[in-house]
Automatic annotation (TrEMBL):
KW Heme (keyword) present: yes
Keyword Nucleotidyltransferase (UniProt): no
Designated name of the protein: Cytochrome
SUPFAM superfamilies on file: Cytochrome P450
Length: 406
């Protein structure tokens, strides 16, 4: 790989000076070393991309793939590689099903019409959670009272999971996304337990189908009339949990955090609710640290727009968060513009493997923001933004808590 950095690799994920500020290395890397050697928590080497055009190409170009991450020469994120999200029973089940076939079948659920139909239920859930926060009194942790429980409630509701099993979903989500807290044996046990739960849930839905995603997928067929396999049905639950729980909880928390860190942003939205949609998109772009990024495996030598050649066999880390702060792609990239349009950020990835659940995440964020503005117009941070902290060791690195008052 041709690049401008020495062989000394940075340790990745990069640290940031504060929970609401991005890593200080980003501007230097984008300018002087857009493709940098990094060492992952596993000790394996990878190449980090930080420029917008490079990241977008890596996410879209078929010469770089997600499926290649299961190859023995691909870099592993964590030492517990047997439990890696990218080489897990879930990933193997979906790869066997055919990623594109699976995405087409599941993607039929995530239409704009279906997401709009969910808004009243999401609003009702949000109102109930805010009621509980008001009962608790101020200050209150917005993560514990709203941002964390809401996405798991929504996903469990979509899948038809009983309410009393939601805590199990939270525990599984933490285990799957953690980089260092759990051993390989613990991660394998979590994958096994989740797969057994989902298999039992699928069997239940076969006996008594209802109006939920699992029941609909059981009855669905592809263009050739073939149903989804049993392993893929079970893996779908885990895929949606990973995509929609911790990630969306982190987005909701960061949305509140960045809007309240400079309260003129909150005041602007109070004065003009028509900005909610564009404000959510700008939060997604401006998010200071969206976590690990997306990995790709290079199947053949590929030159990226910055002029660097990625060698075959390289594992690439695509930092969408760094790309979203690229001044070559966004005017005033380091400033937050609630009315920014167009806003072609990469928070959900790009290309054929962009986040399938992004319509749901956007719907949840827009709905939550609207309810917060309506219910708690005087909302403000109860601590200095510099006092906020992120959860270490998770792929998604959400804020550990967000103390607020009103």
């Amino acid at each position: 790989m041709t690049e401008t950095q020495s062989d000394d690799a940075l340790h990745y994920p990069l640290s940031a000076p504060g929970a609401m500020t991005p890593p200080v290395e980003w501007p230097r890397l984008r300018q002087k070393c857009p493709v940098a050697h990094v060492t992952l928590p596993s000790g394996d080497r990878a190449a980090l991309l930080t420029r917008y055009d490079d990241v977008k190409l890596a996410l879209c170009d078929p010469r770089l793939s997600r499926e290649g991450l299961a190859r023995p020469d691909a870099a592993r994120i964590s030492a517990g590689e047997a439990g890696s999200v990218f080489d897990s029973p879930m990933a193997r089940a979906l790869n066997a099903e055919g990623q594109e076939r699976w995405r087409r079948m599941v993607g039929k659920w995530f239409t704009a019409k279906r997401m709009r139909a969910l808004v009243p239920r999401i609003e009702a859930m949000t109102d109930r959670l805010i009621d509980g926060m008001l009962e608790h009194g101020r200050p209150a942790d917005l993560v514990r009272h709203l941002a964390f429980p809401l996405p798991v409630y929504v996903i469990c509701d979509m899948l038809g999971v009983p309410e009393h099993d939601r805590d199990d979903f939270k525990n599984w989500s933490d285990t799957f996304l953690n980089l260092s807290r759990y051993s390989a044996a613990e991660m394998e046990a979590a994958h096994r337990d989740f797969a057994e739960y989902m298999a039992a849930l699928v069997a239940e839905k076969r006996r008594e189908p209802k109006d939920d995603l699992i029941s609909r997928l059981i009855a669905a067929t592809d263009a050739e009339g073939r149903p989804m396999s049993e392993p893929a049905l079970a893996a779908t639950g885990q895929a949606l949990l990973l995509a929609g729980h911790e990630t969306t909880a982190g987005f909701i928390t960061t949305m509140a955090g960045v809007l309240l860190a400079d309260r003129s942003r909150w005041e602007r939205l109070l004065g003009d609710r028509s900005l909610i949609r564009s404000a959510v998109e700008e939060v997604l772009r401006f998010e200071p640290y969206t976590g690990f990024g997306m990995l790709r495996y290079v199947h053949e030598d590929t030159e990226v727009p910055s002029g660097v050649v990625l060698d075959q066999g390289t594992t690439v880390v695509c930092s969408m968060a760094a790309a979203n702060r690229d001044t070559g792609a966004f005017a005033g990239a380091e400033d937050m513009d609630l009315g920014r349009t167009p806003n072609a950020h990469l928070a959900f990835g790009a290309g054929p493997h962009s986040c399938l659940g992004q319509p749901l995440a956007r719907t949840e964020m827009q709905t939550v923001l609207g309810v917060l503005l309506r219910r708690l117009p005087t909302l403000e941070l109860a601590v200095d933004p510099d006092a906020l902290h992120r959860v270490e060791g998770l792929i998604t690195t959400p804020l550990s808590e967000l103390p607020v008052r009103w």
